[in-house]
Amino acid sequence: MLDCIEIEPQTTATASVIWLHGLGADGNDFVPIVEELGLPAGHGIRFVFPNAPVRPVTINNGMAMRAWYDIKGMAIEDKQDAEGIRDSADAIEQLIAREIERGIPAERIVLAGFSQGGAIALHAGVRHGAALAGVMGLSTYLPLAETLEKEASDANRGVCIFMAHGSQDPVVPIGLGQASRDHLLDAGYDVAWHEYPMQHQVCMPQIATIGRWLAERLDA
User: Which of 48, 58, 136, 178 is close enough to 112 for a disulfide, judged by CB 3.0 to 4.6 Å?
Assistant: First the structure.
């Protein structure tokens, strides 16, 4: 089981957001955003921020850092680390199972992530065997897109997917995010797409939109 940072609501938890950080960061990365989401008092949402395993990353000269999978070249969609992606998706499945054991049904769970974490959220979310409340991918792309048709879960064909991207992103080019959006749309998914004049980051207008989306998905 991945170690996690958790933020409990002031009331009994009735929903969960599992939020994955990006390459080289850790679970603390998005903790400050929780208070900025503008969620109503008594929202009942538990936030779970897992730490990715430490592993060598080829593009960073083999330096070991927290990463959900290896990146093997400058074009991140090439030479994809399928084994690493699937291992991380399996680890997220364990976190979903733990939330269910703690009384949160799958339809009250959102998978979210930024950059690499968003890639895992998208990959795992559309493959999860029970309907989720939503999937959120920020500044990211859909990995192993060519396997989606064969591996997609029927239970999440109708899941609401929130994607946001910076128009000036130098790390994950917006064209890659748009291509992933289009791939999901072509496969029949409900994708809410948002663009912001920023680089590889989040911004306050985006955070406000995320807060409204989460409140809607989780009836907060």
Answer: 136
Quick: pLDDT tens for 106-124.
Answer: 999 999 999 999 999 999 9
For the question of residue 165 being annotated catalytic, the response is: no
The yes-or-no answer on residue 123 being catalytic is: no
Over pLDDT 70: what percentage of the chain? Answer: 100
Per-domain residue ranges for the chain?
Answer: 4-217
Parallel, antiparallel, or unpaired: how do β-strands 63-66 and 54-57 relate?
antiparallel
Token match 């797409």: residue?
193
Given CATH 3.40.50.1820, say whether it is the number of domain 4-217.
yes
Choice among 81, 128, 169, 180 that is catalytic: 169
Catalytic annotation present for 200: yes
Point out the catalytic residue in the list 16, 115, 139, 180: 115
Q: What is the mean pLDDT of the chain?
A: 96
